[in-house]
């Protein structure tokens, strides 16, 4: 590729709408442009990155027995009505009608259509397991599309669906995909963690997320440095602190005017935050519930929702709280409440608690469980924090932000039952397929790779994702000798199978260097007046900044070596197909 | 690939909705399934064919300087309103609204969005020419989707757009694409013709279509066997027959009760059909026009429409004809008509014509141009027929049916003007980009390849498109030796870089042979009791039926040779990038 002919519109300024680094750099480096909110055009260099990720994903899916198919983007409503998700999806689903007024959606996911395909085409246990995948555009009408490729409305996913005879088969397919995904992200050169996750609305039980660690991540993960425990904080199991807090004493009403927050109450009364009981009101479907946690803890909504098995859970509105408790939010507590009360298991260890008094400007001290209030259920309802003990070993947990680039699910029979998809087993009995589904956010992986690999000058691509391995820059295109030598090196690189870009623009060297850093080619080769005098070229690595003069006759050999070593550093010891 | 694990649901019966061979065979061979009307799922083998065509297209676009991008499928209405096509497209465009009630369409084509991209990102003549392409799903809400992949509602196209400084530049880009397209279809192993075509609604002037010759084609093409002339019959220039018909005589009203058609009138009056003038009434936008052609010719609506420069042209309703002419359709003629009259140039050579008398059950004989009726315009308005003279040489034209798999257009400034897309030329003046657009129906090419290559047993793939080169069939999977040898050959083929499929199903040999023919692998290798006795394998070619016993130690060498020769026969002498 010659930069003079390449559509690579780099920018010096950050686009105003770009809130995160990856979005800024994708636009500034000329890899993509916005077409509409949450909808992007991939420019030639962005396209090359995309194709590289797709190729890696495809190879790993094939390696583990995946068969590639292509399912339609526009899907008939009937199938979604059959599974019951036509209504559930709500506004996130793009819907349309054809000229005959038949309803369709733009597929946000493909469980329905693949299950319908398999129920029609696969009928014997002999054909199982079967793993089908595609790499395709998906659509979600996000309320607030943002962060560029991290959360778009039109985005690219790889989705694979496994169909097995039973749970044992599903677990084997799941294990294959776990390995395949690990290979994919290792080959992409990314730092990531596989974490236990909550299965949420999609259903099923066991699920893991593949998280690329980066500050801009929307998810919080905790992991153990000693053992292999890692989980999305939404899912992470809390080890209760069983140390008893306080000693039983008398309950007292104390005047706490304008003292509302945990910090304020603890400060005002001179007690530790963990002596307080924090009381939150939730609306769980149509029922009101109170949730209690220790004052120094945060409620984990997902755990509350899973415990209650409700479809919708939201914090109660202040006016609803006021109606139920007779006071404003800052003064609520469990004493005298007549609704269902859930408590985190640690609440049981507070012998003398401080709580709101359900009366404005008053709190109770010396509150005692069972004597002063009752709890309907005790369970783990809180967020885990960094520094807490690992549930698997003694070590303490670390926490980090992560970008979810992949997720694998054991769906079980959820969709095969709702869509009546059955096979005949070896005894001639009809059984439901046992399914798994496995997604990789292909376009999001581009963003995640950048969020993890950049500096103030631009992107620092892992070589396996880079739009090209090397950029060759003649310092001045007005100097014939520089041009000649850069051209010669460019051709030699191409012949050696190196992906080379020649920056043959008649621009100042500074502009070309800045663009090279911005686009993030792993290797930059400079041909200038001084290198020509020295019979050398200058080779600089983007990730380390290391710079070296290399004899020009050895340049291609050196570049080949560097490329090979960089690629090798991204190759996993293959997790093969067992 | 092992057939036992492959999702390849072959059928013995034709699916009821499949009207054409390619649709029947794509479904029967297990390459695709219908998801909704005009919307299909590609199964693993179909996907492999698709990927092969895509790879060929991509290579040829890149060879001629194309840069791959990916434009969005959902496109904002604003751009289409700006170009004026939001209304024009009518019901063929799938439209939808997002949650904020903003209007979008599913792109039926991408001129608007690419022109908008280039007007924002390209501003100097130095960056031109620029050729951008994508391979992507497109959407057209066809009134009657049919013929499987030939006319679907969701289909795959490659579209490339060229941006040049001027007409000369455009012609160079056009020439490049002409060569690239020729390479693509040669490499696909298809028999095709490049024909002059009408530019129709998309605008622009020069355009060529790439037509795969096949009976099921929706288009009619004429071509010269001697010179290189070829055209869509809609566009084909007619050489007028200048032989004078009849001699001037008196006009006479003759009673022709119930004699309406050309055949009936000629028979009844005992004259040659070419002595008749055929009169047709058209509604051109809001105006009524009469069109005259010789009795043995057919009117070409496209030529009429182009001559009139009208947006809509349709044959007048019988009641409208009756109101205008005072008689039913079978008896209309030009004498005494008071509307605009267009005539094909050959009408001028009929000295004594038979025409309708604009009175039921009557015709005129001895009708003379200018004496009895006037013509507003003479021009070429008729269809060319097989056997007529070539407009370029003396030879006679042949005619054939064709499937349009590609079309290239010189758009000129149509879209750059309507979307105000300009660059700055070397004098600092702002000029409109001069554009071309170039499409390949990627999914339609799959259908076209089948329509041209099949027999009663199934598909006969050109090797460059085949889902695999060779299928290896052990006659009985119960015979260990056969299995062992088939497995060994399968592995050797894979190691030699041959795309091999092993039919390891525990099925009768007949079933496996039938499936092999149906799927259409170019080479079939059989391992059976007899071949094992003879220390050989049986190699059979799908396209010729030629069968040969080959020593098993030479089998891989032989297969490699055959594959190489077959691929070679699809390789063009490259039309390089000049």
Can you describe this structure?
The structure is a homodimer of 578-residue chains. Chain A is α+β, with helices and mostly antiparallel strands. Chain A has three domains: 47-237 and 398-451, BirA Bifunctional Protein, domain 2 (2-Layer Sandwich), CATH 3.30.930.10; 252-379, YbaK protein, CATH 3.90.960; 468-570, Anticodon-binding domain (Rossmann fold, 3-Layer(aba) Sandwich), CATH 3.40.50. The first copy, chain A, is 28% helix and 28% strand. Chain A is built from 15 helices and 31 strands. In chain A, strands 3, 7, 8, 9, 10, 11, 12, 21 and 24 form a nine-stranded mixed sheet that branches. In chain A, strands 16-14-15-17-20 form a five-stranded mixed sheet. In chain A, strands 28-27-29-30-31 form a five-stranded mixed sheet, sandwiched between helices. In chain A, strand 1 (32-36) and strand 2 (39-42) form a beta hairpin. The radius of gyration of chain A is 29 Å and the shape is globular. The two termini of chain A are 41 Å apart. The mean pLDDT of chain A is 94.
Write a concise keyword list for the protein shown above.
globular, five-stranded mixed beta sheet, 3 domains, Rossmann fold, BirA Bifunctional Protein, domain 2, 15 helices, homodimer, alpha+beta, 578 residues, nine-stranded mixed beta sheet
């Amino acid at each position: 590729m010659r930069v003079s002919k390449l559509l690579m519109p780099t920018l010096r300024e950050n686009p105003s709408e770009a809130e995160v680094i990856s979005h800024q750099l994708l636009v500034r480096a000329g890899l993509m442009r916005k077409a509409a909110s949450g909808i992007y055009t991939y420019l030639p260099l962005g396209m090359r990155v995309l194709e590289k990720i797709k190729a890696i994903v495809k190879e790993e899916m094939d390696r583990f027995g995946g068969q590639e198919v292509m399912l339609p983007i526009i899907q008939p409503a009937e199938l979604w009505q059959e599974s019951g998700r036509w209504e559930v999806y709500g506004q996130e689903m793009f819907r349309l009608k054809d000229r005959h007024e038949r309803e369709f959606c733009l597929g946000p996911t493909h469980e329905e259509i693949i299950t319908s395909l398999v129920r029609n085409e696969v009928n014997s246990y002999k054909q199982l397991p079967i793993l089908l995948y595609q790499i395709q555009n998906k659509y979600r009408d996000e309320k607030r599309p943002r962060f560029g490729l991290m959360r778009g409305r039109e985005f690219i996913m790889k989705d694979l669906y496994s169909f097995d005879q039973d749970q044992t088969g599903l677990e084997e397919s799941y294990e294959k995909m776990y390995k395949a995904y690990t290979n994919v992200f290792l080959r992409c050169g990314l730092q990531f963690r596989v974490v236990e996750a909550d299965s949420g609305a999609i259903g099923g039980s066991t699920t893991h997320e593949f998280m690329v660690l980066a500050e801009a991540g929307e998810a919080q993960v905790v992991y153990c440095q000693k053992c292999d425990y890692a989980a999305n904080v939404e899912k992470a199991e809390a080890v209760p602190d069983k140390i008893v807090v306080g000693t039983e004493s008398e309950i007292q009403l104390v005047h706490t005017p304008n003292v509302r927050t945990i910090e304020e109450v603890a400060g005002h009364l001179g007690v530790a935050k963990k002596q307080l009981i924090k009381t939150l009101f939730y609306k769980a479907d149509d029922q009101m519930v109170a949730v209690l946690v220790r004052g120094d803890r945060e409620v984990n909504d997902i755990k509350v929702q899973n415990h209650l098995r409700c479809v919708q859970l939201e914090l109660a509105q202040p006016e609803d709280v006021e109606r139920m408790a007779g006071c404003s939010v800052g003064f609520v507590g469990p004493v005298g409440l007549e609704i269902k009360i859930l408590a985190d298991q640690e609440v049981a260890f507070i012998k003398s608690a401080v709580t709101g008094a359900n009366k404005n400007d008053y709190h109770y001290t010396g509150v005692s469980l069972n004597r002063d209030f009752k709890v309907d259920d005790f369970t783990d309802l809180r967020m885990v924090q960094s520094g807490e003990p690992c549930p698997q070993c003694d070590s303490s947990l670390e926490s980090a932000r992560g970008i979810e680039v992949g997720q694998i699910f054991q769906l079980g029979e959820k969709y095969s039952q709702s869509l009546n998809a059955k096979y005949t087993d070896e005894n001639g009995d009809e059984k439901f397929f046992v399914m798994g589904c496995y997604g990789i956010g292909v376009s999001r992986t581009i963003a995640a790779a950048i969020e993890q690999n950049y500096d103030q000058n631009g992107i620092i691509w892992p070589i396996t994702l880079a739009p090209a391995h090397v950029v060759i820059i003649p310092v001045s295109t007005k100097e014939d000798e520089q041009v000649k030598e850069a051209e010669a090196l460019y051709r030699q690189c191409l012949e050696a199978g190196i992906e080379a870009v020649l920056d043959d623009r008649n621009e100042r060297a500074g502009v070309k260097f800045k663009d090279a850093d911005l686009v993030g080619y792993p290797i930059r080769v400079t041909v200038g007046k001084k290198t020509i005098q020295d019979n050398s070229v200058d080779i600089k690595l983007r990730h380390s900044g290391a710079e070296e003069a290399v004899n020009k006759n050895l340049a291609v050999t050196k570049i080949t070596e560097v490329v090979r070593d960089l690629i090798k550093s991204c190759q996993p010891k293959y997790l093969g197909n067992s």
